[in-house]
Amino acid sequence: MGGELDVPALAQSLGEELQKRNWFCTTAESCTGGGIAAAITAVAGASNWFEGAVVSYANRIKCDLLSVCAEDLETFGAVSEQVARQMASGALALMDANVAVAVSGIAGPEGGSDEKPVGTVWIAWAHAEGQEPVDIDAKCFHFSGDRARVQAQTIAEALRGMLALVQAHPA
């Protein structure tokens, strides 16, 4: 894991790959608080391939803006595969983008449990053709370190996964 130092290069490469395809991306972020969007918009010309972001720290925002099912939040918790997938799908629809990443996790130092310790993060990546998500993948990570380190690792993995998803489709 790690590789946080690669974030500017990852964001630059993501932008180049998206532009080759005339695609746009978006983010739905909880535990990173907009850090992925910040990394993307640090790249000059990001307006050519970045639609916008939703920082959905509160569950109400996840439901109201990203169409996350309140019952799933209650049943599985915000830090779950189900919620991350719905956040990614909701972001695609809201922003009318081609690619989305969603993150929900426990950055710490508090908030962890035996079942979901600090550093647990679900990341979901989604691709849409037209108005329909056609490809949603999600993965659970267990990052280590303090809050800033968990956030940095999450941002790097989110960008890495989004870049891989874009590169899996011919330009």
Automatic annotation (TrEMBL):
Domain of life according to the entry: Bacteria
Pfam families: CinA
Protein name: Nicotinamide-nucleotide amidase
SUPFAM superfamilies per the UniProt record, alphabetical: CinA-like (SSF142433)
NCBIfam families (UniProt xref): PncC_domain
Highest classification ranks of the organism: Bacteria, Pseudomonadati, Pseudomonadota, Gammaproteobacteria, Cellvibrionales
InterPro entries named in the record: CinA-like_C (IPR036653), CinA_C (IPR008136)
Domain CinA C-terminal stretches: 10-163
